[in-house]
Structure formats: structure tokens, C-alpha cells
Amino acid sequence: RWVFLINVPIGAVLIAVAVLSLAGARTRRREPLDLAGAVTGTAGLAALIYGIMQSVDHGWTSAPVLGPAVAGVLLLVVFTVVEARFATQPIMPMRLFRVRGVAVGSGMLLLFGGIAIAMWYFSSLFLQNVLGFSALEAGLGQTPAAVMFMVIARWAAALLPRTGVRALVLAGSACFLAGFGWLAQAHAGSGYVTGVLGPTLLVAVGIGLTFPTLMAAATADAPEDAAGIVGGLAQTANQVGGSAGLAVLATAAGATAATEPAGGPAALAAGYDLVFLMAAGLGLAIALVSLLLPRHGHD
Known about the structure:
- By secondary structure, the chain is mainly alpha-helical.
- The chain has two domains: about 30-90; about 95-290, Growth Hormone, Chain: A, CATH 1.20.1250.20.
- It has helices spanning about 1-5, 5-20, 35-55, 65-85, 100-130, 135-165, 165-185, 190-220, 225-260, 265-290.
- The longest helix has about 35 residues, at about 225-260.
- It starts with a helix and ends in a 9-residue tail after the last helix.
- Keywords: Cell membrane, Membrane, Transmembrane, Transmembrane helix, Transport.
């Protein structure tokens, strides 16, 4: 519970800072709130993800799974219609998806959300639940990969104008395939250095090469008057991909672990290994989708 409570004072400070620093940015014109879009979009995603997560305890064709999932899909269809036809100031203007870079870049960020979850969340679970690390030890165990990500991301941002988007995305995807493929070989008897540290460093290189590049790809061709909206859309795609990815990957891991007769850390390791293989598949999907990007300069 403290993981959530610790954010309360941080949020309070941010609200106070925003009130003081953004006071001069107020305008007399008030834009209408897209309440219908906000409600249908949020409710649709929540229902769909809830339905997917129910498949851990129920069959895919059972009412607890199909009911929320179908409701979620229908709500998302309504959301699309509202945004395209009825909203005067839509939170997600559908016209932006006619821009190829925005559509393809957002799609890749959606896939990337699942990769980030597999890397940071499930590798932490592997360290704790399979190798027996404490929460603090698991955090320290992931620190080298976090540092690697920051270093490579800065380097990739400087390299992007010379290489173009596609080369960096393909290189990052190769790191995902190799790193997650290596990580999927880990088991209860693996050591930290060869079983986790090595592959997570490789995946971190892929994240550093890919994430800033995908953000640039998704926003490069945005109309000037919609630059802020496109930036928000890119962030939303990444967050939605992470939420949906968590639901799917956790479901797959739980279902696989439940079928293992040995139980215990060995069963959990089998579930996490499937997650890492699925993440490698997401890396391959990102590489294939990147071929649809419009060509700019070195691309």
C-alpha cells in the first residue's frame, strides 16, 4: 500500500506547482470537454483488460471473460464513432491517423508498451519469485539495465538525424529478439549474471535505441497545430500497450505456471519464460511494422 501512498504527497506538490506556474497561461476561451469520448474510451479499455485478466480463472469462452471483453470492444467502437462524428473537440482526432507516420508510430508504441512491461515488471518478478531476491535486491539487480537504457537513449537521440528511424528500430528489435530469447532460457537454477544481468542489459540497449526513436517517428509528421495532441497520443498508445500487455502477459504466465506439475519457483519460471518469448515476438512485430514508416532522409 505504501507504493501507492507515497505518490500522494508528490501529487499534492505537483498540483501546487502547476497552480502557481501555469496561472499566466489561462485564456478566456474555454474549450468544450469531450466527456463522451473520455467515458467511452476509458470504460472500453478497462472492460476489455478486465475481461482478459479474468481468463486466468475462467475459460476464454466463459461469461466472466466474454462479457467484459465484448462490452469493452463495443464501447471502443462507440468511442471511435464519437471521436470521428460527434465530438467538437475530440480527445483523439481520427484525422490524425491519416498521417502515416502518426498511425504507424503509434502502432509501434502500442507494441512497445508490452515490451517495457515484460522487461521491468516480469524480470523483477523472476528475480524475487524464482531466484529468491528481496524487493531491494531485485531493484538493485535491475539498476545496471536502467543505467544502460539512459546512456543508450541519449546516444540514440544524437544518432537519429544521421541514421534515420528505421535503422535504429531494426537494431533495437534485434536486441529484443536476442535479449528476450536469452532471458527465456533462465530457470530456478540460473545465476544472476548469466541468467538475468546479461540478457536484461541487451534488452535495455534495445529499449534505449527504440523508445526515443519511436516517439520521434510518431510525432515527426504531425501538423503544427496538432503537435501537442500527437505527443499525447503517442504517450497514450504506449500506456495502453503497457496495460493491455500486462493483462495478456500475466494471463499467459499464470496459465502456464498452473499447468506445471512441479509447482513452486520452477513453475513460475516456466510462466515467466513464456512471457519473455512473447516479448521477443513483440520485438519482431515492431521490426516488421517499422517497414511501413514513410521514408525521411536516411530512411
